[in-house]
Specification:
Ribosomal_uL4-like, 2 domains, Large ribosomal subunit protein uL4, 6-stranded mixed sheet, Ribosomal_uL4, RNA-binding, rRNA-binding, 6 strands
Length: 206
C-alpha cells in the first residue's frame, strides 16, 4: 500500500496515511482514462448548432435570368450556396453528442486517474480544511503553504467555509467526493484532499 504524508494548514507534515491499493494502487488503464475524458467533454456539448440549407432559406423561387444568351453562368435560384444569402451546403443540424460509459468503466477510469496522481507525487492529503470564517486570503495562504498551484481540492461535506473561501481563487476548483471526475483530476496539476475525503473515496470506490 502507498503511504502519503499528511499536512496541516501551515504546510507542516503531521503524519502519514496508508492509501487503499484498491483505489489508489490499481494498474493505470490509459485507454479507459482517455475514453472517460472524451465522453465527459462530449457530454458537455449542447448540440444546438443550426444553419439553413438551400431548401430552408426563404426566397429564391424565381430563376434570376434566362438560361442562355446573357453571358452569365446559368443559375436556377438566388438561394443556391454560391449566392450571398444562400443556404449552407452541408449545414450543421441539432444532434446529441452523448457518449455513454458503463459503471465499471467509469469507476476503473477514476481509479486509474487517482493512481496516476499518487504515482506522480501530485496527491496531497491535509488533515482538515476547517476555516473559522470565509476568507479568500486564508485559502490562498494554505495553498502557498502546501506549495501547490492549479489544484483540485477534494473536500468532505463539513467544509462549507473552505468551499466559499476558494471560489474566487484562480486555478483552484473545489469538489466533493460525489462530484470528482477524471477530467478535473487530470486537468489540475495537483489533487489536494482532506483525510475525511480520502476515507470517503475509499469507502465509495474500493
Amino acid at each position: 500500500m502507498a503511504n502519503v504524508s499528511v499536512f496541516n494548514l501551515e504546510g507542516n507534515e503531521v503524519g502519514t496515511l496508508e492509501l487503499n491499493d484498491a483505489v489508489f494502487g490499481v494498474e493505470v488503464n490509459e485507454h479507459l482514462v482517455h475514453m472517460a475524458v472524451v465522453a465527459q467533454l462530449a457530454n458537455k456539448r449542447q448540440g444546438t448548432q443550426k444553419a439553413k440549407t438551400r431548401s430552408e432559406v426563404s426566397g429564391g423561387g424565381k430563376k434570376p435570368w434566362r438560361q442562355k444568351g446573357t453571358g452569365h453562368a446559368r443559375q436556377g435560384s438566388t438561394r443556391a450556396p454560391q449566392w450571398t444569402g444562400g443556404g449552407v451546403v452541408f449545414a450543421p443540424t441539432p444532434r446529441d453528442y452523448t457518449i455513454r460509459l458503463n459503471k465499471k468503466e467509469k469507476r476503473a477510469a477514476l481509479k486509474s486517474a487517482l493512481t496516476s496522481r499518487v504515482n506522480e507525487n501530485k496527491f496531497i492529503v491535509v488533515e482538515a480544511m476547517n476555516f473559522d470564517e470565509i476568507k479568500t486570503k486564508k485559502f490562498v495562504e494554505v495553498m502557498n503553504n502546501l506549495k501547490v498551484n492549479k489544484a483540485l481540492v477534494v473536500l468532505d461535506e463539513a467544509c462549507d467555509k473552505a468551499v466559499l473561501s476558494a471560489r474566487n481563487v484562480a486555478d483552484v476548483k473545489t469538489a466533493s467526493v460525489s462530484t470528482i471526475n477524471v477530467y478535473d483530476i487530470l486537468k489540475y496539476n495537483t489533487v489536494v484532499a482532506t483525510k475525511a475525503a480520502v476515507a470517503s473515496i475509499e469507502e465509495v470506490y474500493a
